[in-house]
Design a protein that fits this description.
The chain is α+β, with helices and mostly antiparallel strands. The protein is built from eleven helices and 15 strands. It has helices at residues 5-27, 33-38, 41-48, 93-107, 143-153, 156-166, 168-177, 195-199, 258-269, 284-295, 380-401, and strands at residues 57-65, 71-78, 117-120, 200-201, 204-208, 211-216, 219-220, 232-233, 236-239, 242-244, 248-249, 331-340, 343-352, 357-366, 372-373. The strands form five sheets. A five-stranded antiparallel beta sheet has the order 2-1-14-13-12, sandwiched between helices. Strand 13 (343-352) and strand 14 (357-366) form a beta hairpin. It is globular, with a radius of gyration of 24 Å.
């Protein structure tokens, strides 16, 4: 029987149309992050072949406004309730910075603000003092400048000094009081100290000209915040140049679950829309200071203005991938990233001023193919950063196509930079 050429052509056209429709259906947001990830194979296929291996966790929160611009929140998770540990790295700097500002306000001492000179002493062999800061406009250290360095380039020493100002016990009890039950911050960053030495924190003195505004003696945490059971990951680690062929125990390391990290971003950006006990008690000026430094880029500072070393995306993983210069001005990313031991994490409130789009996105991914820690062999560039870049872009696309009853008024963020 001879085939009908016209019918053959129409069947071919129909087949293509059905394929395109199926593709469109797969790409369309249907309320499931897993659906979004699994059907965009060009973007996410490599990771979604084995999301368990990559310890992937994501929380995406849609924000809808009423006629008076009041927000409501709808969250979607992917493996975010798994309870899996991930090393939070520098993300712990954000709540620490906020609690440092909160402590200054609580002390309520005239002249003692984020710009007051903060001098750190040392009373133990493991401790180091800080009396000068050449990167500061005044040449002197301060809470405000430490926070600026944390938000602009994620400076480790700046975090350590805020950790010392707060004290380990007060820091962790403040986190628990805000409902961050799974979070623990037990150690300084970049310097290797014992569990015991991290329970000790340095004396601190604040001054204005030559007048002492406030003195705080060295503190000791009477409570241990180490995990009550082992948290073993990987197969091996390098210690003092030698390979130890056994899993690494993260029980004494910091922890910041993805839900807690997401909730800190939510409380920071929408303080009036969370329970009072979850808010950070900051002044309006402090909030503006944090927003400005979270969303600006190193090049806009006097100290990190070499774009070859500090590109605009230096501490922007979602949508940007940790690189890229001259991010469009209508895109603002209020975030905090972390990267260490093969874990890459970012949590952000992202707005698009041109299209009146806003959302919260928090994600962590693990890239350590050989399951060995401290060998500097992690697939950040090959897998982790591209995944987070495409994840942010995909959610932005969802938001561009999502219907809203009322467009958000985002004008409070227009003149921060």
């Amino acid at each position: 029987m001879r085939s009908n050429p016209i019918l053959t052509v129409w069947l071919a056209i129909l087949s293509v149309a059905l394929a395109l429709a199926a593709c469109s259906e797969h790409d369309e947001w249907n309320g499931s992050l897993e659906h979004l990830l699994r059907f965009q194979t060009d973007r996410f296929g490599a990771v979604m072949q084995d999301p368990d291996k990559h310890r992937l966790q994501i929380i995406y929160t849609q924000i809808d406004r009423d006629v008076d611009n009041r927000p409501s929140f709808t969250s979607y998770g992917y493996r975010s309730d798994s309870g899996e540990y991930f090393y939070p790295a520098s993300t712990v700097k954000l709540p620490t910075a906020l609690l440092a500002l909160e402590k200054l306000k609580r002390l309520d001492i005239k002249g003692l603000d984020r710009n007051a000179t903060m001098l750190t002493g040392a009373v133990r062999d493991s401790q180091t003092p800080v009396l000068r800061d050449p990167s500061s406009p005044t040449g002197l250290p301060s809470i405000g400048h430490y926070i600026r360095k944390i938000l602009l380039v994620s400076d480790n020493d700046a975090f350590n000094r805020l950790y010392e100002f707060l004290g380990q016990e007060a820091l962790n009890e403040a986190l628990r009081a805000k409902g961050l039950k799974g979070t623990r911050i037990t150690h300084r960053l970049e310097i290797a100290l014992s569990i015991e030495e991290n329970r000790h924190t340095n004396p601190v003195r604040f001054s204005d000209d030559d007048a002492v505004l406030y003195e705080q003696e060295a503190l000791y945490s009477g409570t241990s915040y180490v995990a009550d059971r082992p948290v073993r990951l990987g197969r091996a680690e390098i210690i003092d140049g030698a390979l130890r062929a056994e899993p690494k125990d993260f029980a004494e390391k910091n922890a910041f679950p993805i839900q807690d990290l997401h909730d800190v971003i939510l409380a920071l950006m929408f303080p009036d829309n969370v329970a009072p006990q979850r808010r950070f008690d900051l002044t309006d000026d402090d909030y503006q200071f944090v927003y400005r430094n979270m969303s600006t880029y190193p090049v806009n500072s006097a100290i990190y203005n070499d774009r070859s070393q500090y590109p605009d995306g230096y501490v922007k993983f979602l949508m940007v991938g940790g690189a890229g210069n001259e991010i469009p001005n209508h895109i603002r990313i209020f975030n905090k990233v972390g990267d260490a031991y093969g874990f890459l994490t970012d949590a952000a409130y992202i707005i698009d001023l041109e299209n009146n789009v806003e959302f919260i996105l928090a994600a962590t991914i693990y890239t350590n193919e050989n399951e060995t820690f401290n060998d500097n062999s992690y697939e950040y560039e090959e897998i982790g950063l591209p995944f987070l870049r495409e994840l942010g872009a995909a959610i932005h696309e969802v938001e561009l196509n999502r219907e809203r009853l009322h467009e958000p008024d985002l004008s409070r963020f227009e003149n921060l930079q």
